[in-house]
Amino acid sequence: MSANEDQEMELEALRSIYEGDDSFRELSPVSFQYRIGENGDPKAFLIEISWTETYPQTPPILSMNAFFNNTISSAVKQSILAKLQEAVEANLGTAMTYTLFEYAKDNKEQFMENHNPINSATSISNIISIETPNTAPSSKKKDKKEQLSKAQKRKLADKTDHKGELPRGWNWVDVVKLSKTGSKDDE
Q: What domains appear along the chain, each with residue ranges and CATH number?
């Protein structure tokens, strides 16, 4: 069989095996992702396998560069890829995508034994907090609001409705008062 026929058969098999599996994702007919572990699991990781034109006679391209793997150190990623590469060497010449995904699932704990989650948000907040002390005092002076006394707050509350808005016409001039006192020409 030619490489293309092998790929077509394996593609069909992968689609039928992983139909309805949320962990499996077909990016293209020659590129696949599989999430090892549950979504909330800190030791979960994502493997991407891309077939070359001559796959399965030549090894597929293995990758762990997905955003999902940002909390995994590069040393752990390299370790996982090295172990998967050994499995590729053992299965060269045969359809191996399913085998690699299952191998990763079976050895997840062993792969992730040295994993300490990297919290990128913490490192960013540390950088931000290091920069902020210089700007903090000036921002406090700008943000200070004028404090109102209880009597001032009560007057303000009496003028406004339940939404804190002034009633319609609050700044209108009392027309009746003006007409009575305003014109001396009428006398």
A: 3-112 (3.10.110.10)
- DSSP-assigned letter for residue 167: P
The reported pTM is 0.57
In which region does residue 101 sit, left (phi positive, over 0), alpha (psi from -120 to 50) or beta (all else)?
alpha
Residue at 37: amino acid letter: G
CB atoms within 10 A of CB 100: 20
Q: Which residues, at least 6 apart from 85, have a Cβ–Cβ distance to it below 8 Å?
A: 59, 62
pLDDT in tens, 80-128: 888 888 888 888 888 888 888 888 888 888 888 777 766 544 444 443 3
Report residue 122 as tokens.
């913490």
Which residue do the tokens 């006394």 mark?
149
Exposure string for 149-160, b = 16+ CB within 10 A, e = fewer: eeeeeeeeeeee
Q: What is the pLDDT of residue 127?
A: 39
Q: Which helix (H) or strand (E) holds 3?
A: helix 3-17
36 class by beta-carbon count within 10 Å (0-12 exposed, 13-18 middle, 19+ buried): buried
